[in-house]
Amino acid sequence: YTEGRAVAAHEILDELLKREPHSRIGLLLKARLLLLDKKPDEALAMAKGAAAADPERAADAFLVMAQSHLAKGRTEEAQEAIKQVLKLDPRSVPAQLLQSRLFAAKGEKQPAIDFAQQAVSLAPRDSDARLALIRAVLANGDTARAEKEIRALLREFPNSSIVNAQAGALFLARHDLAAARAAFARSLEIDPASSEALAGLVALDLGAKDSPAALRRIEGRLSAAPEDARAWFLAARTYAMVGNAAQTERALLKTVALEPANVQAFAMIGDLYAIKGDIGRAVEQFQAWAVREPKSVAAHTMVALLLERLNRLPEAKTAYERVLDLDPRAAVAANNLAWLTSEQGGNLDQASELAQMAKSQAPDQPAFNDTLGWIYFKKNLAEESIPLFRQSLEKNPDNALTHYHLGMAYAKLGEDTKAISALKRSLQLDPHLGTAGDARRALAELQVP
Fold first, then answer.
1. Is 394 buried (19+), middle (13-18) or exposed (0-12) by CB count in 10 A?
2. How far apart are CA 259 and CA 297, in angstroms?
3. 213, 172, 168: which is closest to 191 by C-alpha?
4. Residue 411 and residue 405 in contact, taking contact as beta carbons nearer than 8 Å
5. Strand, coil or helix: 187
C-alpha cells in the first residue's frame, strides 16, 4: 500500500479474509486501509468486525471506529469509541490525542490541554503528542508555555519540517518576526513542499511590503511543483492581495481543477466575478468548459455556484446533482446541495447525509461544519449542532452567519447569556446580513426583563 499499489494491497487482504473471515488483524488492517482510502463507513464496518473477532484486544479496532466517526463528523459516536479504547488500553497515546482534538473542537481548552499532556507523559519523545500540546496551550493563550515547549521540541527534532513550521507560527503569533522567518525558512529547507512554511514566509514578505519577494517565492514553488493545489491557492490569495486580478483568476481556476473540494477557492472565484459584474458571462464560460470537458467536476461545480449566485436556485440544484452524478464524493456540491435542500424545506435526512459526506472529505472546513450544524439545529438537535458551529468559528472567527446560528442554538437550549453574546457578535460583524432581522428579534425576546 505504501508503495502506491493500493489495489494489490486490498486484493491480498480480501484473499486472506475470504479464507479467514474472522481474522482480527486482517479486518483491522483492511479497516485502516479503507480509512486511508477515505471510505470511513466501510472502514467502520471492518473495524466493528475486528472488535467482535477478539473483544479483549479490540482497542485498536475502537480507535479506527473513532477515526471513522470523526471523518463523518459524528463527534458523539467518536467520543464513545475513544472511551472504549481507553477502557481497554488506558495508555493509548492516539486515543489521548483524539480526545484532546475533540475537546479543542468544542472550545473546551483545559480538557484539550489535559489530554495532550497525558499523551506527552505517556510518550515524551512523540513529536505528534508534543505538537498537540503546543497547539492546545497556544489556543488557551499561553504563548510563554507554548514557546518553552516548542523550543524544547526544536532541540530534540531540529530536522523536522513540521516542528519548525509550528515554531514559525508561534513566533509569528508573538510578533517575533526574525525568529518566525528563520523557522519557516528552516522548515522549507527540510521539506520544500511544506505549504505551512511557504505561507508563513509569504505572509512575512507581504507584511514587510515586499510583494516582489512574495511572488518570487510563490512562482518558484509553482515552477517546481506545477500540480501543487495548495501552492496555487496560496498564489491566488497572494495575487489578490497585490491587486493582480488576471493572475488571481488564473490561479483560482488551476486550484479548483486540481482540488475540486476547495470551497474557499470556489467562493473567491464567485466573488471575483461578482466584483467584475459579469456573473452571467461567467456562467456561459463555465458551461462551455463543461461541454468541452463533460467529466470535469470543477467546471460543473462552477456552473452550479454561479447559478446559485444569480439566485437561479432550481437550476443550481440540478447542476449540483449533475456534479454528484459525476463524483458522488464531490464535497462542495454535496455541501451546497445540502444547504439548498434544508433552506427550501426539503428532506432534512437527505440534507444531513449530504452534509455529513461533505464534512467527511474536509473535516475542518468551516462552511461544511456550519452547514451540518444548521441542519442538525433544524432537526431539533441543537446540542449536537453547537460543537460544529464552534469548530467552524475556530477556523473562521469573523463569520457573522455562523455566530447567528450558534446564538440560535444556544437560545433553543435555554443558554440565554451565551445566545445573547453570539447574536450580538453576529450583528456587530454584519448588521445587514439576511438573518439580521431574525437576530434582533431573538435578542429582543432574550433580553425581556
1. middle
2. 10
3. 168
4. no
5. helix
Cite the beta strand spans of 207-297 per DSSP E: none
Helix (H) / strand (E) element for 319: namely: helix 313-326
The answer to whether the Cα torsion of 337, 338, 341, 346 is positive or negative is: positive
Whether 229 contacts 256, CB under 8 Å: no
Residues 6+ apart with CB under 8 A from 36: 1
| Grid cell locating 347 | 428532506
**Measured in whole angstroms, how far is the alpha carbon of residue 78 from the centre of its chain?**
17
Q: Which of 371, 449, 369, 438 is nearest to 407 (CA)?
A: 438
Q: What is each CA distance from 107 to 139, 374, 393, 394, in whole angstroms?
A: 9, 18, 10, 8
> pLDDT, tens digit, for every residue of 8-32?
999 999 999 999 999 999 999 999 9
Residue 152 C-beta-side C-alpha neighbours within 13 Å = 15
Q: Please give the average per-residue pLDDT across 184-199, as a whole number.
A: 93
Which secondary-structure segment (H or E) carries 405?
helix 400-412
Burial class (CB in 10 A: 0-12, 13-18, 19+), 431: exposed
Least confident segment among 54-63, 134-143, 160-169: 134-143
Give the integer Cα–Cα distance in Å for 234 and 286.
Answer: 23
**Alpha-carbon distance 410 to 392, whole Å?**
16
Mean pLDDT of 281-288: 82
For residues 112, 116, 118 and 122, what is the CA-based torsion angle, rounded to 10 degrees? Answer: 160
DSSP 332: H
Q: Residue 272 and residue 246: Cα distance in Å, rounded?
A: 10
Q: Is residue 4 within 8 Å of residue 33, measured between CB atoms?
A: no
Q: CA 287: distance to chain centroid?
A: 29
Pick from 357, 251, 340: which is nearest to 304 by CA?
340
Alpha-carbon distance values, 181 to 188, 209, 233, 237 (Å): 11, 15, 21, 20
Q: Which residue has the cell 503569533?
A: 173
